[in-house]
User: Fold this.
Amino acid sequence: MIVVVCAVLAGIGYKLGSELVEAAAADQTTRISREAQLAMQRIVEPAEVATTLLSLQQMTLARSLGQRLKSLQFLRQALDSSSALSSLYVGYANGDFFLVGRIGHGAPSEAAKVPPGATYVVQSIERAGDQAHGHFIYLDAALQTLREDDRPDYAAAYDPRQRIWFTEAMASSAQIKTPPYLFFSSPQVGITLAMQVGSGPAVAGAEILLHSLGQTLAKQKATPGNELVIVDSQGYALAYEDVSRLVRPAFEVNGRPSLARLDELGVPALVPLLAAVTEMQKGGHQQGPRTLRLSIDGTAGRASISP
Assistant:
């Protein structure tokens, strides 16, 4: 009888302990979800203001690179308002494009072309009939020109009118936000805010990097064994503490890098969660956190997924 009673008590204790662990995991995930949402708001709100103000600038009506360069002071101040802002730009209905961005937020292949001391880069496309002229201008912190490069390859590869942020903004009377995606100019995850210019045929836009969300997740780890990741509805990772794992190399059909899914991050504990994420998406975001039992290489684990 003593053995039976002890076994029953041990079973009850194990069950209660398991329930406490699962409840704690669910509570932690819900809290992290709230904090990630607040972090996203802190990232997006300055960009919303900058995009609205940019849409009111005279440069949205400018017809040449020289006229657009007169707005550099405003663009620098707007960029400096948020460390998450990667670039501000205007796409014109005739296919022209004018962008001011931070050095270091571009593709690795561009890093080798940057002159020493450069802080900002101007990327310009001007079109005249069938001819397109691409131009890069590298600036220091005081907006003094360090070097100017002709870039016909850039003008040939990029047309703002074919980008989703342009088409959606032109079809809307309000500011639009794209879902997170891999930027054209760099293998980094971000979102684009865009707004049609009311006084002319152009769209003002801002790019926001989401790398800081990965830093937010890293700070929330309760133990070294915790793995925290933000994904979209298809299970593609948007934020993770090791940002180098978010992007797969350019071996896809179109030769472009792509986002990594949960099962492609190289973390065994995250692989079985892909099916659970896509299944939750089918049920809608009204669901609460879902807790799962896992076995990773023979070790028991718990996972909690929260919309």
Remarks:
- The mean pLDDT is 85.
- The CA atoms of residues 108 and 290 lie 39 Å apart.
- Residues 55-209 form a domain with the Beta-Lactamase fold (CATH 3.30.450.20).
